[in-house]
Amino acid sequence: MRKIHTFLWGFVCLLLLQSPAMADTKSSVSRPSDDTNIIIRSEETIFTVNSLKSGTTRYKVSITILNNNGNHRAKQYVHYDKLSKVGYIKGVSYDRSGNKIKTLKNKDVTDVSAISDFSLYEDNRVKIADLTHTVYPYTVEFEYEVTFENLLFYPIFHPQDEERLTVEKASFEVQMPLGMKLRYLESNVPQPAKKTATATHEVYTWQVQNLKPVETEPFGPGLEELVPIVRTAPTDFEVEGYKGNMESWKSYGLWIDQLNKGRDVLPEATKQKLVELTSKAKTQEEKVRIVYDYLQGKTRYVSIQLGIGGWQPFEASFVDSKGYGDCKALTNYTQAMLKAVGINSYQALIRAGDGEPDIRTNFPSSQFNHVVLSVPMAKDTLWLECTSQTEAAGYAGSSTGGRHALLITPEGGKLVKTPNYKATDNAQIRQIKVTLDEKGSGSASVTTRYTGLQQESHANAVQNMQPDEQRKWLYQQVKIPAFEIEKYAFVQQKDKLPAVTEQLELSLRQCATISGKRMFVSPNLMSKWTYVPNQKEKRLTDVVRRMAFLDVDTVEFQLPAGYAVEYLPQEVVHKSVFGEYKASVKVDGQRVVYLRSMQMGKGRYSPESYTQLVTFLNNVIKSDSEKVVFVKNIP
Fold first, then answer.
1. Of residues 404, 89, 390, 366, the one with CA closest to residue 251
2. How many angstroms from the chain centroid is the CA of residue 430?
3. Beta partners for residue 557, in sequence order
4. Vertex 475, ends 473 and 478: CA angle to 5°?
5. What pLDDT shows up at residue 426?
6. Fold of the domain spanning 2-242
7. Span of the secretion signal (predicted)?
8. What is the CATH number of domain 252-417?
9. Per-residue model confidence (pLDDT) at position 307
């Protein structure tokens, strides 16, 4: 859903995120502290709503760039499409003394397609104004105007949109026609909106100044939680003749449902084929899987969108005949096919992406970038990613799992949660058998079963890499100092909780260290923990862990004859609010068995708990580094 991809993305980028604006002063530059790459000298955004469907944004900014880490702000990106028009772009740059370097000319502005690699055709384009310079510091000023014939979304005021950025002053003004209601959500703003009025408009103004650079902390919340942001949205709106209301999730869902009506009609031949394919299915879930397999074998993801087509899907009959569509069209097609075999389902808007924050559930607005299908079952719900030709039916994963989605029903929109994957779902269960020789080298047979989120990278290797690429990838993944891959194999299991089993036959070089008559063996062969964030004198923000997991290793070493144990690490257990770690080693003659398990949860914890996290991880690293010492019996 590429223009449901641009609900959030395009408009925010257009107005604020990429923005470096015309300042009235051209003074020389004073250098701030070393933690700053960029200084916003002044920024001004004025958004004027003219009607339900039309408006104008005027934007000005003056930015001082202190080093090459700030050079990206010397380029101004202005997005537009069939429903928007760029009136003008102006720009000028100055050196550190305030002397003019250059004035933006037409040749400095490129106009390129903003379509993605997977898109066949879209109307999204971007103008890029470039005032990059090579001597620091320097200042760039940009000014532009864009008019819109689509007010599905209003701008976001986000002046401090990256780390190591100082804001001297920034303002945001929204002008609403009298009688039209502005909805907004303020976060971390020093002062609430100032409200005034003219003869024709109500005016809302926000201002910030002297914002010092912000830096996110390890395992901390994202930048959006830490800086001033004002989100705005319409109450009533219109896109190419389709009027809607966004005051509630229910009303917004009704608008999407209006766009979908009548677009689920399939040819009779296709419906009959689907009935035949599912005739022997014993359960409703089996029917769903058969239809989903049919979808994956017949279609591919291609985005073709113009105007309202950014939000309205192609008819199911179009996808059926052409074999392609975007996320809206493929989801609509799948919904129509399930309907043909007697199964009810709902399209669901979602904010997809690994690491993407959840939507603001208390602020109904266009916060989504994707569409999936929700299929209620007797005991559970199956979530279908209809753009994938390889994903398992029912698996939401890192892209769409553990967040809110907006179900689109005839009664309106309804917020629901997608599956949340716990530690035992995201497992890595490994068994290793190692045979060592007199020199400390040897061979290893490794079987690892990955499930849930931990199988995703391996599933990608199975589905998208050639054998030579897979082998190179494995050399990067296997954490053993010196080894050769003799053989490898993958077995993929597609299910609601998918799994990949990886089998390796390895040749090991100096797996154990020989010193005189002693042999030093590190029993943790492949799962050593290595990362500990820096300890801080005072933690400022909550500790956020975004993924739960469980790792279990069983490693069996077969030693050459004649060695006896001299030192054996004690069994250890480390516990904290974040998780639990256990490790033990047992020796039986020439056989050494190492057991290790590490489980960590997902959640949000107080800043004071950060010290416990650092201590816990340091203890894990210490335990993972333990060695067993053997001594050779010399007759």
1. 366
2. 28
3. 434, 592
4. 105
5. 98
6. Immunoglobulin-like (2.60.40)
7. 1-23
8. 3.10.620.30
9. 61
